[in-house]
Specification:
GO terms for molecular function: methyltransferase activity. Keywords: Methyltransferase, Transferase. InterPro entries: SAM-dependent_MTases_sf. The chain is α/β, with parallel strands linked by helices. It has a single domain, classed as Rossmann fold, CATH 3.40.50. The protein is 26% helix and 24% strand. The chain has six helices and ten strands; from the N terminus they run βββααβαββαβαβαββ. A hairpin with a 4-residue loop joins strand 1 and strand 2. The mean pLDDT is 95.
Length: 219
Amino acid sequence: MPSMPLSCPLCGEMHILPFHRDSRRDYWRCQTCQLVFVERGQHLSSADEKAVYDNHENSPEDLGYRRFLSRLFTPLNERLAPGARGLDFGCGPGPTLSVMFEEAGHAMALYDVYYAPDPQVLEDSYDFITASEVIEHLAEPGRVIPRLASRLVPGGWLGLMTKRVQSREAFAGWHYILDPTHVSFFSEATFEWLASHLDMQVEFPAADVVLLHKPCSRA
């Protein structure tokens, strides 16, 4: 049990209830935004977290990995104007999604807290931002996701890929919670709350894929 009252790392509310427990961690669900999360005291250290990521072997030459990423790439690319400018947030040690967008004619910047830690790219503005298999790793999604949304120009897109919570019963046997670096788990209801909170429109174009659209400026 946590040593102090919990607040949700996404919305900040304190109406938190137990959701699941396994042999390693406790999982809590916010009753406001429906985020399921692991409290900070049960997170890995930064060094241990990076050690897990260092074992990832993704690369642009891996056709299977490209097919996996195409679930996000294809619907987002269909919505972009030619020559759009994008940021791949959490690109990892083998950036691939950014390469796919560059091949489609879009300029890309990269950011990763471990592998491309250039804070300047987070001060620029973009037509689209991607975060594939990233937000489930965020200890502070309520700080990071709004910051990304703020870097979008009017009419911009935030494209996310993460597996979604379906039910308490499915969660108990879910392989996704076995990864010790996964600490934030989103449901469709969570993304709907997030879209409302950010004043954005939300779409679910494919399994595990979420597109958040920033409205164009109104005269």
